[in-house]
Each structure stands twice: as C-alpha cells, then as structure tokens.
Amino acid sequence: MNKDTLKNILFLDIETVAETKTFKELSERKQELWKKKSAFFREAEEKSAEELYERAGIYAEFGKVVTIAVGYFSDLDPELKLRITAFSGHDERQLLQEFAELLNSKHFSSKETRLCAHNGKEFDFPYIARRMLVNGIELPKALQLSGKKPWEIPHLDTLELWKFGDYKHYTSLDLLASIFGIESSKDDIDGSQVNGIYYEQNDLDRVVKYCKKDVSVLVQVFLSLSQLPKLKAENITLL
Fold it and tell me: Cβ-count burial of 71 within 10 angstroms (0-12 exposed, 13-18 middle, 19+ buried)?
C-alpha cells in the first residue's frame, strides 16, 4: 500500500447516546417499542426497560450521533502526517449534514475514497446512514449500498481485516491495539460511559476527545494490519 492509497482513506469513529436523557422522556409509543426491543436481554439481566435505557444509544432507532471523528493523511505533506478532527454537537442533523458535506466534497467523493472504521460495517457505517435517513439527509455516494456487490462497497473494516474470514471471531479495537503495542484510547473513559458523561455530566468535549483518540488508535492498528510502520506521535495532529 503506497502513500497515495492511504491518502484516499477516511478513517472514522462515532459516539452515540440514547435519543433522550431518560426513558420517561420518550413518547408512549417509543417506550412500548423499547420494551419490546430490550426484552431479549432484559429478562436475562432481570432489569427493567427503564434501567436498560442507557444502552439505547447502540441502536439507531433509539439513539443519536453526538460526534463523528475523522482522520486523514494530508496531501500537503511529503511525510505521512495524520490530521484528526470531529463533527460534534447536540444538534444531530447539523453534524450529520456537515459530515455529509465532507463526503460530498471534491476529494472524498472520488471513486478512490474508502471509509475505514473498526466494526464499521456492522455499526458505524449503517448507524450513520440510518440516522441520515431519519434526519432527511440525502446519503452521500460512500454510504449508498443498495444494489452494489460486496467488492463495489468502498468500506474498510479493521475487525474484518483481523478476522481473515473467521466470521465467528470478535476482537475489540483496544485488544488489537494492545497486541500491536499501541497506546490505548481508554485512558480516561470507554464507550460504556459515553451516555452518562453526555447526559449526566453534560461534558460533550470529553466525549469528542475520546472519539478522536479512538481514530488515532484505529489508524495505527490499520497500519499494523497493513504491515506498514506506525506513525510517530509528532505526526498526529488533533484539530
């Protein structure tokens, strides 16, 4: 893989939360639908639908995106340098619209562009696409999958790269980082705490910072899986 190929990859990670702070803020209809959705794990854990509502953020039907962090290699630098920024805010439609505009921009709308995330094919990419539809945003070409053959879909997934065809095997990004000697992004928080930090602590900035660090780890893992040298810390810029 050469530099030009790397510069056509947009690395990303998303953080999501439940669509409302509390279960009771949902409409009666959505409350009943969440009870049905959560029934299969509610019984196993002997908890109520209300107690389990903090998990709603992992489902696009009951959650919302609060940040999308993206990383890309600059075209301006002869040496590979990664730049990481984020779209974030309490207005989901606005941040998704801004992200869509990035994907529709001259550079990232080209046929050579690839999106890359960890477990992105199962979570990040479909979640973003579903929330764009909910918010009435036209899907950028990179997220339009209908009618495409698997090899025509411009998505890369570090989990899939690590599986080597073993579809029964799940490995977290943090575990891959560990075995490749990459510093963890979980030094402050982890994904299970995002909902509470967003709603209880009202600290979106902390969530954004964590999301950006996840993208940095994602890129280092991707380089390791591609048998390429990892980036030096000074060549990673958080914007």
Answer: buried
Q: Which fold has domain 3-19+62-238?
A: Nucleotidyltransferase; domain 5 (3.30.420)
pTM above 0.85, yes or no: yes
Give the tens place of pLDDT for each residue, 128-185. 999 999 999 999 999 988 777 776 778 999 999 999 888 777 899 999 999 999 998 8
> Taking phi first (over 0 means left), then psi (-120 to 50 degrees means alpha), and beta for anything else, what does residue 171 get?
beta
Give the 3-state secondary structure of residue 235.
helix
Confidence of residue 46 (pLDDT cuts 50, 70, 90): confident
The answer to whether residues 30 and 74 touch, using CB atoms and an 8 Å cutoff, is: no
Domain ranges of the chain: 3-19+62-238
- Record the tokens describing residue 57, joined without a space: 């953020």
Residue whose tokens read 């060549």: 235
Phi, psi of 111 (to 5 degrees): -65, -20
Q: Which two tokens stand for residue 103?
A: 């994907």
pLDDT in tens, 60-116: 999 999 999 999 997 656 678 999 999 999 999 999 999 999 999 888 878 888 999
Helix or strand (DSSP H, E) at 116: strand 114-117
Q: Within 10 Å of residue 152's Cβ, how many Cβ atoms?
A: 8
DSSP-assigned beta bridge partners for residue 88:
67
CB 73 within 8 A of CB 81: yes
Beta pairing class for 9-18 and 63-73: antiparallel
Residue tagged 């040496």 (tokens): 79
Strand order in the sheet with 114-117: 155-157, 114-117, 9-18, 63-73, 82-88, 236-238
